[in-house]
Amino acid sequence: MNKIEQLRHNFLADIEKISTLQELEELRVAALGKKGELTLLMKELGQKTPEERRTIGAELNAVKETLTNALDQRKTQLEVDSLNARLAIETLDVTLPPRPVLKGTIHPLSHVMDQAIHIFGQVGFVVAEGPDIEEDFYNFTALNIPLEHPARQEQDTFYLPPSSADGQPVVLRTHTSPVQIRTMLNEKPPLRIIAPGRTYRSDSDATHSPMFHQIEGLVVDTKTHMGHLKGCLEEFCRHFFEDPNLKLRFRPGYFPFTEPSAEVDIWWKGNSWLEILGCGMVHPNVLRNCNIDPDVYQGFAFGMGLERIAMLKYGIEDLRLFFESDLRWVGYYGFEPESRE
Amino acid sequence: MKFTLSWLKDHLETEASLELILEKLTALGLVVDKVENKAEALAPFKICEILEAEKHPNADRLQVCRVNTGTEVIQVVCGAPNARKGLKAVLARPGDVIPSTKQVLKVGKVRDVESFGMMCSAEELHLGERAEGIIEVDRDAPVGEPYAKWIGFDDILIEIEVTPNRGDCLGVYGIARDLAATGIGKLQPLKVERIKGSYPCPISLKTDPEACPYFTGRVIRGLKNGSSPLWLQKKLEAIGLRPISALVDITNFFTHDRARPLHVFDADKLKGNLNIRLSKEGESFIALDGKTYTLSDDMTVIADDSGVISLAGIMGGESTGCGDATHTIFLESAFFDPIRIAITGRSLGILSDSRYRFERGVDPASTLPGLEAATQMILEICGGDASDVIIAGKEPDLRASLTFEPSRIKTLGGLEVSSQRAQDVLTNLGFEVKGQGNNLTVVTPTWRPDVEQEADLVEEVLRVEGYDKIPSTPYEDRPEQKPLSLLQEQRFVARAKLANRGLTEVITWSFMEHKDTELFGGAPENLVLLNPISQDLDTMRPSLLPNLLKALLLNQNRGAEAVGLFEVGPQFSDPTPQGQHMMVSGIRAGVLHSDHWLEKKRPVDIYDIKADIIYVLSGIAVQYDQTAPLWYHPGRSATLKLGPNVLGYFGELHPRILKDYDVKGPVVAFEIFIDRIPLLKRKSKSKLTLSPYQRVERDFAFVFDKNILAENLIKAVQKADPVLIKGINLFDVFTLEDDKKSIAIRVTLQPQDRTLTEEEIQAISQKIISSVAQSTGGVLRQ
Lengths: 341, 782
Description:
By secondary structure, chain A is an alpha+beta fold. Chain A is 42% helix and 19% strand. The relative contact order of chain B is 0.06.
């Protein structure tokens, strides 16, 4: 074995033994660096005859290529090994909790209100509003509830000091019905409105809250009759309670502001009728009070408690907890915000 | 309104099943609340007789009784003090379920003496309140018969809800009339005979027509007021009324049978004649309930020479009440104005069966027949001798004559009903109908003053036909229209955004405690409720924050350390509609989130809440005015403005507020007048050109006086080149000595048409530095 052959053999053997990139680099320098053994042999070529230069030169170049390849291969191998070794120790417990997610909830009443608005919206109802503090006229008188009407006693009304302007009683609205009056006085038929909002009665026990929510509906045109009222409320209840076969029962009721009047029950969980809302055809006196001719126009109105339908739909039992703001409760019964942007 | 099935059948001849009757009642609008068959639960309990009662050998308070069950004689140990020889009682036998405990009775040994049954108290049978001892059954009662049958509980008790317009159905007869109209039975006519007086009425009347339009009465003398007969006692007991005496029971009977309240005065206790008049302020009166009432002006009273002796139509007086010793009475049957009765009853707070009926309307035409029928019953039960009837005023005629087009049943009610059928229904309900086809004239009955116009007649026909027959007619036209205006939509958007930011929506009262309003700018007197539910909820809130703070306290007391709440609701500055402001307000308190292995918990601060607001405001460029209302920390709060308009406030709450509400800080809050925010218009966006050229970032650190605001710096920088400067990122702020502070920013330059040269960048940097120096006095930090 000549010297070159020997050198090739030794270096290849050394490359195989190398275990770090550092050592590999050192070995590369020892062989192919400026003062490397192979480099020195190549520098010596100048002193050789042309014949020797050609043969030895070719031999040296072949060795250089062999060594370079071997070094590269070894380097790649070492890099892979080192990455694998690193990855082998780089492990995380993926079951650890993630970074805190701050997400709140929407109150169930807002959610229910939103749903109701959406369902009635599909039948062409638009949302109307009125103030929580009402004049007696809008809350009672215009709704055909004169001062000493027994219906006033059944609604325990909160009173504020009488208006300084005209001495009229000022009340917290006991229902959302005054919005009907405000709408009829300000807009011309045909009308199809719903009015969700806060309402107040001075009553507080397990089933009554001094503040609660209602949604009011009003249609005024020339043709609407009780069949439409039934159709409209059936459609709402079936959508809202997500039961296309939900049975409704309409039975005569009494409200001073509707005639004929009806109470609506739903057949609940196959075992009992539950009253959920009151409705009827707008009383001719109410239309007259709003300067609408009852010989030309007619329509229906309804009102229902949002807490009531929320409790039924979501199995919420205690009315009082709606307004207690206990995060445990709101977090449980609340809803994830839907994107509305 | 309670009645029994058998009572109903006194007036309604029917073969209909109970189920059908109940169904029809509800369909008529007389909704059935409760049906009770006490007989079923009480069936096992039979009347027994105690033959002997001896002291228990081993217990002082017990007795060992020999009891006749009707078929055998058994031994029963009894602890009731009233158990005695000869008493008739109610016996439970082993195997029976005791209603109050739902336990099965067993043969037992009481102190070594065997007992084969138990004699029951009213409480044990669910028949009454806690009482001393066992039930004492009437001496005539048949031993061995079910007790329930004997007391009339073999009947079915029905309770219906009567709407305020149906005073006529506050008597069983009126209910029977409605049911008969549906065709399930026949109404039995009332037979009222005129009782001729045998002497002129010795008492004269003076009436003020305003106080009472129609008043009738008569004297009955020589009667005896003992217990009423069993049939009457049982009838009243079955509907929950305690029998008192024959005279009282008779008036109660007519109240519940005919919706005809009556009153009986002990005529021997009257001083002179009767004067039916309006009361005067300050007059006082002792009623039958033993209480003294001070009257105000304009209440209808019946007076004699001694003063007020009866609150007409509501409650009689103690001084002329009837008792065992009553031998002569004055029987009153009158018509009183519903409104006056309602006002009087409400202002004095007296609830009575009579008031309940008069304020809902008593049939004026029942005045005289009611008097006659009651006279007849009194004479039958109590004996005596009736005087002539004395009458003041005139029976009011409340009937209305209405034109009626039966086609309205279809066009208003949605149900096709023939004219003939409509006429039949109305006639059966007591209306007089004339005319034919679509042109009818209908006269309302005296007992239905609530029927005033055509729509009422439509309802009458519909409710007898049944609302269930109306076909439901969905709308076919569905206008393409958004249900929410942009303004309304904005509130829902704000809700969703805040919940996405980690705040939880709550709904709190619109009212709060008045004294706490002082902390939030106060509330005018005209926002204080005259009749609050409680003192801590007596004022319409001037801000949502007080109730949110109470909610915070509640949650902190339950251990929550990271609390973020918001509410969308009204606050009030005055009682007019303009004084009601729709708010979106929120608070964050304590830490942003609880301890976490990755992120240390940190206290919330105003920059958390500022981020919430900016998100809600959807990038509207508001101005921050560093003055805020007094409930905020003066140095850590701001008013949000858009031009001259205040959009809201935010900041850290004043330490005084935290102390007053006893909440743990820090607490940061915001209040947004959501309806003042410019509408989120969905306008199209201007064209975006993405530049292909290299963007350049340069950092600067300036030093200036500590009073200079970050905003001033950013404006000054932007002004240096509004086109090229695309971003200013403020990444460091710190305070230096000598009342100086340093702010570091990174400015992003983005050319649109070329790559910037180093010279150009230098030039812009210089412009930035001089703009900052000029506007803020700031110099580049060395």
